[in-house]
Amino acid sequence: MMETMAEPQRAPDRQQAWNILCEFTQSESLRKHALAVEACVTAYARRLGEDAALWSVTALLHDFDWEIHPQARRDARLEA
Q: What count of other Cβ atoms lies within 10 Å of the Cβ of residue 52?
């Protein structure tokens, strides 16, 4: 029997990423931080010929769980 390959997962678009961020991040300063990181990485992506949309989503979601798992973040910093 032939195995079928699973359909690849599609990355969320920017609006979906923003909605996820807002759902899990209540702090206005963390939301602003995500927007600032997004602006930086998308500028670099454009300059370097990379996928700016993918980097935009990545930047918006990079800390979306900060408020949910604060101890895990502290532990990771200590291990580094």
A: 17
